[in-house]
Amino acid sequence: MSVLVAVAAMGLFSCSNTQENVENKEVKTSTVELKEVTSPAEAIARLQEGNARYASDSAVNPHDNHMRIDETAPKQTPFCAVVACSDSRVPVEHIFDQGIGDIFVIRTAGNSVNDDVVMGSVDYAIEHLKVKSVVVMGHESCGGVTGAITEKEEAVENSKVDELLSVIRNDVRPYYGQKDSLDAAIRLNTNKQVERILANPEVKKLVEEGKLSVVGAYYNVHTGKVDF
Ligand SMILES: [Zn+2]
């Protein structure tokens, strides 16, 4: 596959419609090109460009039409994987202005990969889908990390929430009981997951060979911006 052009709206708007707002939209969408990603650096660049559009209210919502559904139906070839929090304010494809078939998304409360099912999902993306980058994205005001650094309340019977928080708590132990250090705890939690993914020698090897990157990121729920 050569070049994928992100002109989701173009086919609809390029005919004879002369309304001003439609023309503006056409100009905006036709300037964005989604090139095929062939390296970790290109994967991160594409995410950064998409996030810049999103955060400046210029998202073009690429790859979000039936043509793309048809194109990706036989096989998925996402260029990256993103491990993010389940928090409803962290919709990954929106944040990076990507669409169907672009990102292999793994979301859990607190974006921890300290679980076989979650880590298995990451490894699947690397080994089978050959993604060029794995991004672990923590976010501002994360409830999972907040719960993990907050002194324990009595657990609700038959609920697994306490178990979840214990898993995250192990990674942010230095900040336990320090609510003011939430942001530092969120960043530490992200770094721990990156380390955990890189602890797999096969993954480490791909990184050393320049075929893959595993990076941490931080999403600001106020600005919509992602820092890598
Ligand atoms: Zn969260």
What distance separates the N and C termini? 28 Å
N-to-C SSE string, H for helix and E for strand = EHHEHHEHEHEHHHHEE
- Class by alpha and beta content: alpha/beta
Widest β-sheet, arrangement of strands: 4-3-5-6-7
Q: Can you count the helices?
A: 10
The overall number of domains is 1
Low-confidence runs: 1-30
* Strand residue percentage: 5-15%
Strand count, sense and barrel status of the largest sheet are: 5 strands, mixed
CATH T-level topology: Beta-carbonic Anhydrase, Chain A
Give a written overview of the molecule.
By secondary structure, the protein is an alpha/beta fold. The protein has a single domain, classed as Carbonic anhydrase (Beta-carbonic Anhydrase, Chain A, 3-Layer(aba) Sandwich). 43% of the residues lie in helices and 15% in strands. It has a five-stranded mixed sheet, sandwiched between helices. A hairpin with a 6-residue loop joins strand 6 and strand 7. Helix 7 packs across helix 8. The two termini are 28 Å apart. It binds zinc ion. The site of zinc ion has 7 residues, from helix 7.
